[in-house]
Amino acid sequence: MTTKKRPLLAALTAVTAVAGLAFGLSAAAQPAEALNQATAANTGTPGIVEVTHEAPTWDEFKASVITDGTGTYVVDGDHPIFGDEALRHWYEAAVGGATGGSLKDDHDHGGETDLIINHDMSGNPTYWNRATVGNLTYCVSNAFGSAKQDIIDALERGSHPWEDASSAIDFRYVPSQDYNCNTSNPNIVFPVLPDYTPGLSARAFFPDTPKQYRSVVVTPLAFEDSVPVENIMAHELGHTLGFRHEHIRLGLRGCTEGNNWEPLTPYDSNSVMHYPDCSGTGDMSFTSLDREGTQIVYGR
Asked: Nearest Cα to 191, choosing from 206, 211, 168?
């Protein structure tokens, strides 16, 4: 996937702090100034279990996985994994192949799927209750420095498609909490934090993620990617609502993620949740099928 430099990059690389979305970019693709100030000297590549070919051993897989500035494992670009036990569970599920569940049988369209909901380790779908999804409060760290306003604007634009799709969803920026923007702040659902982990541009979390791990993190790569940064933010906010990568159903080399998910709508290669470098045909813009899947989970 090609990248282009954006004005915000210099501002982002001038501050320090937390973690990562990879679109097939290696550490070498990052600007030198970001690498020089990286908070984690990790030159690995995103952990991927390629189930359509001979799978790596557990040790080979673990050695390939990126860890972000918080010490969180990041697999398949922006999927956070917390701890060795959870990583091993993810690895074994991925080697076992990807099969969907049946969350909304009354909405089953059959065939390939577009928007996909996450499952916890017990097989239950993970999404917010109505009270919480209507008050998804967040702060934006002052550590972004002069890049902060660009981050705020990108998040606001990225949240609009989800909020427009369902009246139940409301992402609320709380600037009064920016001075204490971290995962332990009880006045927000999640913080938005900067980081410089090589090979990553952003990562998020799922609704069942424990509070202490719940954050959206952004690196300079998000602002030099060919995908508009507001679309990357929309993609990450989709994860915070419980939605998985759409392309995992295709079974492509390097684009599978195990079996803890289930389908909602027909397949759409233009989906906001579809990586362009996993046979996606769009720029991660929000589509009518994304809207339909959102309404299946959260209503109109």
From this structure: 211
Instruction: Calculate ∠ Cα 264-241-116, nearest 5°.
Output: 20
pTM of the model: 0.70
Helices (H), the chain: 8-12, 32-36, 58-64, 84-95, 130-133, 148-165, 229-240, 288-298
Dump pLDDT digits (tens) for 180-234: 999 999 999 999 999 988 888 999 999 989 999 999 999 999 998 889 999 999 9
> Helix 148-165 vs helix 229-240: angle between axes, to the nearest 10 degrees?
60
> Which is it for strands 190-194 and 216-218: parallel, antiparallel or unpaired?
parallel
Q: What single DSSP character describes residue 176?
A: G
The answer to whether the Cα torsion of 221, 224, 230, 231 is positive or negative is negative
